[in-house]
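Shipment paperwork, digital attachment
Item: protein structure file
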Amino acid sequence: MTRMRTSAMYSNRAPVRNDPQPVHPTTLVRSVVDGLDLTAVAGRMDRRLRVDLTELVRCSVQRLTETPTEGETEPVSDRIESIARRWAQRDLPIEILHRAVHAAVSESLQWWARGVAWSDGRIVRAEGSGLIDVLRALSAAVARGYTAEVRAMTAEGRVAAVTLASGLLAGRADGTRAAGYAAGQADSYLVVAVAIGAHPQESDPLLDARVVARRKLRRIQAELATGCRPRPLPLLSVDGGTILIPAQASGVDADFATVEQWVSERIDRLAHVAGAPVTATFVEAEPAAIPRTADLAHELLDLAVHLGRGPGLHRFRDLACEYQLSRPGRANRRIRSVLDPLRGEPTLLETLRAFLGSPGTQDAVARRLGVSVGTLRRRLGRIEALTGLDPETAADSWYLRSSLVARTVNGEKTGTNGERAGPSLDKAG
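Attachment content:
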């Protein structure tokens, strides 16, 4: 093995070595590869991967210990970039490549250091500086090759994902297959309707809200691209959209409760990386049923949002009653008409919503509204007088609650912010 390369100032002065039998480069390379922790790719390790790692370590040792020859057809950095590109194509972790480079440098340095006369400080300083330069160059070559391939794959994969998602949502599964994306089509999908809230910085007057929103969306897209396999098919804007997740991503044999929990964890994770609230509902469907299933999922999402259920995953069973109340027809019109007498009384509507939607005593409800208990009781009495239904009885409160839900999901305003304010009933309280 040739001597360690030195900086230009000391390139003609080789450090003194006392080792009579220096280790052979092939032995050194084999030792480094055998010592790598390959747990992360244990199930995918094959001859091609081992050849790549061996070549990467050999290039690193060569770059550190030998001066490039003039007739070399491919620079070491180019060979390293090619290896990194192959690993990116197979979706293998870049960390292993970096560990291999560092292990090669470390082992080479340990071999070289055994025979150096360390009393010569000039050589040690020169070699240390050169070592840092070499390590930086090797790591940069790995990063360049890997990231270049990831960017290319991401752009291509995003176009394919959008094409497939658009085709499935439009009911063009056959056309999508003809376009060459059948390989990415699953037998069944979790159709997830998503509403993405605003990031806190979107309201910062010193920042561009559109830039903050786009960054939020990119973080969500990056998480979807790496968070589960097979990869989901998102069709999202900064405000939300639809995500088609292949059903096998959550476990083919999993029961529905387990699938719900899995989706809930994914939604919580998206909210975490986005730094913004994420509200979602989902329904499972085969490819041919995705268009109408997506409509159902978004209707459920609209219900959750309009009813103020808050962020997170909302399950169909939790919204079944409200969904049924929202169906158009004579029954829907009849149940909505229950609150017609309160149409010009937004304060009463707000009181009714607070009273029916917040479990607790009248004292607690009054504090929440910022009024006295006496005022709350007068308002409840006024509601009974106008509608003929007593909010404090179980049977009547059911009709009042159902009417509130039906009016809300049909887009009718039921609070003080939505309707023209009528005359105040509570001047005394």
